[in-house]
What does this fold into?
Amino acid sequence: MPVSLLRWLQLSLVLFLAACGLGNRPSNLQERELVLRVGEGGRVQVQLGSSVQTCRSPQTCTYRLPSNAAAQLQALPDPGFFFAGWSGDCAGFGGCQVTMSQDRRVEARFGAMQGDFSLALPAGPLVIVPAGALVELGVTLERRGGFNPPPEALEVHIASRLVGDAVDQIAYRYVPQRSTPERLALELVGPKPGEVWTYLAAPAQLRVRVGGLEKSLDFTLATAPCLAGCGR
It folds into this structure.
């Protein structure tokens, strides 16, 4: 085959592949860049599929990921610090998932904790949640020595044999959006109507943790049959 004809065929093949888009890498295989900056006082666990990596403070970590891959980020403060929130392509105070449809920039901020706190129940040591009812529990947070973590930085839990996911148990959630620096708000949902036939009471404990500091408050949690309405 003449050399000129061979070169013409090679050039034609290249032009054909380019016109069909076969000469370019598919967009779903392109890499995207996740730049994660971790402020002083903590670390961030980055879950990439089945792999978990840790970016520690004060450090900036860069990850190259396939386009549209998902990365799960979890901020973990060091003792004496609290998580002060995300900025960039993450927001708020909880875990964050970013989808790599484009390059992403994320910053995890931490604050040095000051002061101390204690807990109190202004309504008294007995909390009753009727079956089918929604009850807001307000907990007084008494700050001392310039205690500075915001409500969103607190971990709040209730432990009791009456608390759980079963239809005859009380469910709860902490609501930082309705909390203030002096008052923590929790929503308690009573058992399913028809699952409770008598008054039940049990010891309970409220635990609040932040930056390695944990306080607890003992009280009595109770439920009772639904008498009127109660979500039926």
